[in-house]
Design goal:
Blueprint: H1 2-22, E1 24-25, E2 34-35, H2 37-48, H3 50-66, H4 72-92, H5 96-118, H6 123-153
Helix pairs in contact: 1-2, 1-3, 2-3, 2-4, 2-6, 3-4, 4-5, 5-6
């Protein structure tokens, strides 16, 4: 029963990452729309832990890649972001300042990785990501509170 619950939870989290990744909010900077999956991802790692988050992220990226909705570059950015965010939250805890800074740091490092892969200067990529970083900082705390409340209401951690 416990394995079934764990598989179901990770699958649901992967679905949440996929769906929220499809929701794009336009930005005032052309070409830099923002995916709402970033603050959701930080909230997921804060509430459910590093390994569930990483497995859900691997599952989400694999599904999107296999469906042709993501390229290998999208997967690279996503996985760098996930490892950095998950590492920060795992090492420094789930205090609000840590959660607020984890997303922007993850985005920054992911853009550095993309710039290295493409052999381009990273600053245009980073500047384009700034509106999303700000939105992540603003949205992560309310989303984390919602996820905590949902898990409490359904009694997930009581079982």
């Amino acid at each position: 029963m416990k394995k079934t619950r764990e598989i179901t939870l990770v699958s649901l989290l992967a679905g949440l990452i996929i769906v929220t990744g499809m929701i794009k909010i336009p930005s005032f900077v052309p070409g830099s729309e923002f995916q709402i999956s970033a603050p959701i991802s930080v909230a997921i790692v804060a509430v459910f832990g590093f390994w569930r988050y990483i497995w859900a992220g691997v599952m989400a990226s694999s599904i999107l890649f296999l469906l042709g909705l993501h390229t290998i570059l999208n997967v690279e950015i996503s996985m760098i972001f996930r490892i950095v965010v998950g590492g920060i939250v795992s090492v420094f805890g789930t205090s609000f300042p840590v959660l607020i800074m984890a997303g922007p740091i993850g985005s920054f490092v992911a853009r550095l990785g993309l710039a290295k892969t493409l052999d381009v200067t990273p600053w245009p990529l980073i500047i384009a990501a700034v509106p999303g970083m700000v939105f992540t900082m603003l949205a992560v705390i309310p989303l984390t509170k919602v996820l905590k409340k949902v898990t409490k209401e359904v009694g997930y951690f009581d079982k």
